[in-house]
Amino acid sequence: RKRTVVLISGRGSNMAALIDAADDSAFPAEIVGVISDKAGAGGLGVAASKGIATRVVSRGDFPSKEAHDVAIDAALVELGAEIVCLAGYMRLLTTGFVEKWQGRMINIHPALLPLLKGLDTHQRALDAGFRIHGCTVHFVTAAMDDGPIIAQSAVPVLIGDDERTLSARVLGAEHALYPMALRLVAEGKVRMEGGRTVFSDFESPNHNG
Ligand code: GAR
């Protein structure tokens, strides 16, 4: 099973979905650690309660973004990471770090990329009058929310939705999508090659059937 480390900054509900999926010994990845850049991240307690090793690498403890990312890299190496999953990790990573882990690091974004990169995706989807919204798992490259797409899941925007109801619907889709995408990467059925996603069989990597 591929040794996988999850990077978080907050609540960690996607992290928990990955840990729960990997609890099944038939799942091709095992979650060997969780790293947070915030000491107060709620997900740290959740991970610990599930018996997963946790590390805090706070930005404030380092003189620069580069030094912070070097420390995160060292924690990943110490944990023996083969795959890195960003799950609500809210800090941009430096180019050197991203290049080192390129093809082995994936992220979940709460929108159907390439629409709605960045923050506040649910309110922006509502403001734009979208009738469909969703989430994307992609390989991480140096440009924010821009790496090759692995899998997407769409949800409807319902009349009367507000940010709370829409984000909850998308989050439910995220919790199903992220474990599926990690499985494909861990099995080697999906890889990044020449800046694109390559699929090695005909399994359709979206969650809408
Ligand atoms: C998730 O919705 C994730 O897609 C989003 O933050 C939330 C984290 O929730 N990520 C981003 O916005 C990345 N720019 P979680 O901590 O409960 O998984």
Automatic annotation (TrEMBL):
EC number: 2.1.2.2
Catalytic activity: N(1)-(5-phospho-beta-D-ribosyl)glycinamide + (6R)-10-formyltetrahydrofolate = N(2)-formyl-N(1)-(5-phospho-beta-D-ribosyl)glycinamide + (6S)-5,6,7,8-tetrahydrofolate + H(+)
Methyltransferase as UniProt keyword: no
Pathway: Purine metabolism; IMP biosynthesis via de novo pathway; N(2)-formyl-N(1)-(5-phospho-D-ribosyl)glycinamide from N(1)-(5-phospho-D-ribosyl)glycinamide (10-formyl THF route): step 1/1
Gene Ontology MF: a single term: phosphoribosylglycinamide formyltransferase activity
Active site: residue positions: H109
Site (Raises pKa of active site His): D145
Ranges where the Formyl transferase N-terminal domain occurs: 2-182
Chain sites annotated for binding N(1)-(5-phospho-beta-D-ribosyl)glycinamide: G12, S13, N14
Gene Ontology biological process terms in this record: 'de novo' IMP biosynthetic process
PROSITE patterns according to UniProt: GART
Binding site for (6R)-10-formyltetrahydrofolate: K65, M90, R91, L92, L93, N107
InterPro entries in alphabetical order: Formyl_transf_N, Formyl_transf_N_sf, GART, GART_AS
One of the record's GO cellular component terms: cytosol
Keywords carried by this UniProt record: Purine biosynthesis, Transferase
Function: Catalyzes the transfer of a formyl group from 10-formyltetrahydrofolate to 5-phospho-ribosyl-glycinamide (GAR), producing 5-phospho-ribosyl-N-formylglycinamide (FGAR) and tetrahydrofolate.
PANTHER family tied to this protein: PHOSPHORIBOSYLGLYCINAMIDE FORMYLTRANSFERASE
Family listed: Belongs to the GART family.
Protein name stated in the entry: Phosphoribosylglycinamide formyltransferase
Gene name linked to the record: purN
